[in-house]
């Protein structure tokens, strides 16, 4: 039997894709829902095939389909309009599998047409002299069933694992083929003989609203209505394109779709509908537009349109409507001294609340390490909760350890709020007031987590506030998709001085003038007020070998972003800055490690018992850290086996070891840290920092210095308080950052 997809049979590599696509086409005879699920599966197979057989595509660490289709190296290859048809295929298959929605024949046929276009482009990329063939609808059966007959079987089909397992091993196995096919695609100009027909894009965009609405939990003709007349508005009143209602059928929102020939016309139309609804129900609905495939929300408080990423769920619209009724910006929340107990912390919270009251959507707080950003974040959250300005919060941190730490701190500071660590126990995830996560974990949850009803758990309005633990240029490269997805107020914290090189990019992201954050508290002010202590620097770097060829201030914006992302010492910036093999030979030399340790014992600041005070040695990697600990124990067994400890992400009792190190009277005294104690941990007793590695991230370096800045009482001899700490730099890090003592 002839098929629209038999052109794939010419290539044996496409066997699984062809089989599934043809099965999707044949299933139109019996079940439209099954056809859409199989179409989504065929597309997934095609995407996975590309990442296995094209050496130019960067394989993300997480192989979920949502990660793969958003991978930048693939996105830039796809022709204009293909994103719209790809999303339609995948999301239609998703809601059919998870929500068992009815599928009319035209929706299933559109999915097959979109699949045909996608797979035709695939073939055009990797075939010699390929001639595309148009989709022939006469080959399709007119029979079929709209309703889902067996939901469990359909979901099992959608979730059925793919043959071959993980992509990375397969890609390594096909390395030569992948390199050849990448060159062939380049020769074919990325399949330029295939373009996405505008009418296909328009149809997919037109139907996508129903698909996206179903993912958000809306059910057509139950709480979502098309071409709906406004009760009591009269016959001449134009029907609402889309009306969304609450559980009592009271209007929550209106959306202009077909009436929005332009954004201006759409705005005028939704305002007209809103006025009629407000007259009838004494409450104004939320206003949305869908224009050229893009969603918009009309923020009437600011009289401004803003882009949103998709439909809001009913539960989140109801929550926001409730807060809109209750929000009292004139109220003065009771700021607990147990949360924000310093004057500048309270001032920061007031600035945040005032800006939220003014309608500001992006806020940035700039304070040096050790000044309590976690407490300021908790204080702001508590105050905004009291004012009924927010109800759900996402707290983002760079690394898993910082997520766990922030979660633990909030559990003590705000014990009455329901918090969930997305990297740990998430049994009450749906009810959580505050969710703690990394950006990657949260993005996976957005794509994968569902309620019991099969509804997407994290719709774009799920969070009212997103807190970014540490704001630096690389965050926005890593977090941008996620931050664009959620329609939330952004509250970022930066430990880097506003005037530092590269910070202009951060301020631009927050829509702020360079160097003008929402609130700032400088390191000079913190030292003046006695919250932080200064340091003494010893530059022990060998001449010439450790001299930087680059300076942070001289890097381009792109290089600076790369530098901020390079937590290791083997990246692109590192290779340009110094002779990597020579530096490694020096840093790993037993002779140099021994000299470093003896220097530390001689010059390091002492504790009140006259012995070496708490010390962090920042090491390059686990191998070096273990070597440092081993050499010290061999040279000085008199200090005991627990005096020094190498700490990395694989340390089995890491949390307990960090807790012991942070306690003044407990061991270890020396912690050799590999990206463990660099950021976030509060350790007032630390009096010595040893940089036995190069650092290229300014935000990371600022945080590393911050480990010694905390004030500590009764630390020195005769009950003296901590007044200074010592920094020993073996790698000219201060020179690279043009930083003076």
In short:
This protein has 27 helices and 19 strands.
Structure overview:
The chain is α/β, with parallel strands linked by helices. The chain folds into four domains: 208 residues, no CATH class; 111 residues, no CATH class; 186 residues, Rossmann fold (3-Layer(aba) Sandwich), CATH 3.40.50; 203 residues, 3-Layer(aba) Sandwich (Rossmann fold). The protein contains 27 helices and 19 strands. The chain has a seven-stranded parallel sheet with strand order 9-10-8-11-12-7-13. Strands 1-2-3-4-5-6 form a six-stranded mixed sheet. A six-stranded parallel sheet has the order 14-19-18-15-17-16. Helix 5 packs across helix 6 and helix 17 crosses helix 20. The chain is globular, with a radius of gyration of 29 Å.
Assign the structural class, choosing from mainly alpha, mainly beta, alpha/beta, alpha+beta, or little secondary structure.
alpha/beta
- The oligomeric state is single chain
Number of strands: 19
Low-confidence runs: none
Major β-sheet profile: 7 strands, parallel
Radius of gyration over all CA atoms, rounded: 29 Å
Number of domains: 4
**How many DSSP H or I helices?**
27
Proportion of residues in helical segments: 40-55%
Strand order, largest beta sheet? 9-10-8-11-12-7-13
Write the layout of secondary structure elements.
Layout: H1 15-26, H2 32-53, H3 65-69, H4 72-75, H5 82-99, H6 105-126, H7 151-159, H8 167-173, H9 175-187, H10 198-215, E1 224-228, E2 240-245, E3 251-256, H11 263-281, E4 286-291, E5 294-299, E6 304-308, H12 314-326, H13 343-357, E7 362-366, H14 373-386, E8 393-396, H15 400-413, E9 419-421, E10 434-437, H16 439-448, E11 465-468, H17 473-485, E12 489-494, H18 503-509, E13 519-520, H19 523-528, E14 534-539, H20 557-565, H21 572-577, H22 580-587, H23 590-603, E15 614-618, H24 622-635, E16 644-647, H25 654-662, E17 670-673, E18 686-691, H26 698-709, E19 724-729, H27 733-736
Parallel strand pairs: 3-4, 7-12, 7-13, 8-10, 8-11, 9-10, 11-12, 14-19, 15-17, 15-18, 16-17, 18-19
Antiparallel strand pairs: 1-2, 2-3, 4-5, 5-6
Helix pairs in contact: 1-2, 2-5, 2-6, 2-8, 5-6, 5-7, 5-10, 6-10, 13-14, 16-17, 17-20, 23-24
């Amino acid at each position: 039997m002839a098929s629209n997809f038999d052109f794939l049979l010419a290539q044996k590599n496409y066997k699984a894709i062809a089989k599934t696509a043809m099965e999707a086409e044949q299933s139109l005879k019996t079940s439209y829902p099954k056809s859409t699920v199989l179409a989504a599966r065929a597309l997934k197979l095609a995407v996975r095939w590309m990442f296995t057989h094209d050496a130019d595509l960067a394989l993300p660490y997480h192989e979920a389909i949502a990660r793969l289709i958003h991978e930048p190296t693939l996105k830039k290859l796809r022709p204009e309009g293909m994103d719209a048809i790809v999303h339609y295929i995948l999301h239609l298959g998703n809601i059919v599998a998870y929500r068992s929605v009815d599928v009319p024949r035209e929706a299933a046929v559109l999915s097959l047409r979109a699949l045909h276009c996608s797979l035709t482009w695939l073939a055009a990329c990797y075939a010699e002299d390929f001639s595309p063939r148009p989709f022939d609808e006469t080959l399709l059966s007119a029979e079929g069933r709209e309703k889902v007959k067996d939901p469990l079987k359909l979901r099992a089909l959608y979730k059925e694992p793919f043959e071959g397992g993980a992509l990375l091993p397969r890609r390594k196995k096909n390395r030569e083929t992948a390199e050849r096919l990448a060159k062939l695609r380049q020769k074919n100009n990325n399949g330029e003989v295939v373009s996405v027909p505008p009418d296909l894009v328009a149809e997919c965009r037109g139907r996508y609203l129903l698909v996206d609405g179903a993912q958000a939990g809306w059910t057509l003709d139950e709480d979502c209505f098309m071409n709906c007349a406004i009760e009591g508005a009269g016959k001449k009143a134009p029907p609402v394109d889309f009306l969304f209602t609450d559980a009592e059928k009271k209007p929550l929102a209106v959306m202009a779709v077909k009436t929005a020939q332009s954004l201006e016309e759409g705005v005028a139309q939704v305002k007209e509908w809103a006025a009629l609804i407000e007259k009838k129900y004494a409450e104004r609905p939320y206003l949305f537009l869908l224009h050229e495939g893009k969603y918009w929300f009309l923020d009437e408080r600011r009289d401004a349109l803003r882009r949103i990423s998709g439909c809001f769920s009913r539960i989140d619209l109801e929550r926001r409507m409730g807060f809109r009724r209750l929000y009292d910006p004139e109220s003065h929340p009771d700021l607990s001294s147990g949360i924000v107990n310093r004057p500048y912390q309270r001032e920061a919270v007031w600035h945040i609340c005032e800006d939220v009251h003014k309608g500001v959507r992006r806020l940035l707080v700039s304070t040096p390490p050790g000044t309590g950003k976690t407490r300021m974040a908790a204080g702001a959250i508590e105050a905004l909760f009291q004012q009924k300005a927010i109800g759900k919060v996402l707290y983002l941190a760079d690394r898993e350890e910082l997520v766990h730490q922030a979660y633990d701190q909030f559990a003590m500071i705000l014990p009455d709020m329901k918090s969930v660590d997305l990297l740990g126990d998430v049994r009450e995830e749906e009810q959580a007031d505050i969710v703690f996560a990394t950006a990657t974990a949260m993005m996976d949850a957005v794509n994968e987590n569902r309620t019991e009803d099969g509804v997407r758990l994290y719709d774009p309005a799920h969070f009212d506030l997103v807190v970014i633990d540490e704001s630096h240029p690389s965050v926005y490269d890593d977090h941008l998709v996620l931050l664009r997805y959620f329609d939330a107020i952004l509250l970022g914290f930066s430990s880097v001085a506003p005037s530092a090189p590269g910070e202009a990019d951060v301020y631009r992201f927050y829509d702020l003038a360079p160097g003008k954050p929402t609130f700032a508290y400088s390191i000079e002010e913190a030292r003046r007020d006695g919250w932080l202590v200064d340091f003494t620097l010893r530059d022990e770097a060998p001449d010439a070998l450790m001299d930087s060829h680059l300076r942070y201030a001289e890097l381009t914006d792109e290089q600076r972003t790369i530098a901020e992302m390079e937590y290791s010492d083997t990246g692109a910036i590192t290779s340009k800055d110094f002779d990597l093999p020579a530096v490694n030979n020096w840093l790993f030399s037993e002779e140099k490690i021994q000299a470093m340790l003896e220097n530390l014992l001689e010059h390091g600041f002492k504790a009140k018992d006259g012995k070496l005070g708490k010390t962090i040695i920042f090491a390059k990697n686990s191998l070096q850290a273990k070597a440092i600990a081993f050499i010290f124990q061999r040279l000085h067994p008199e200090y005991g086996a627990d005096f020094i400890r190498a700490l990395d992400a694989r340390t089995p009792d890491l949390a307990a070891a960090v807790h012991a190190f942070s306690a003044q009277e407990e061991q270890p005294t020396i912690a050799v840290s590999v990206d463990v104690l660099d950021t976030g941990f509060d350790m007032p007793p630390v009096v010595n920092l040893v940089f036995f590695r190069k650092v290229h991230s300014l935000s990371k370096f600022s945080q590393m210095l911050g480990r010694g800045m905390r004030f500590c009482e009764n630390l020195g001899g005769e009950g003296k308080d901590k007044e200074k700490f010592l920094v020993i730099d073996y790698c000219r890090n201060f020179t690279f950052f043009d930083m003076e003592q």
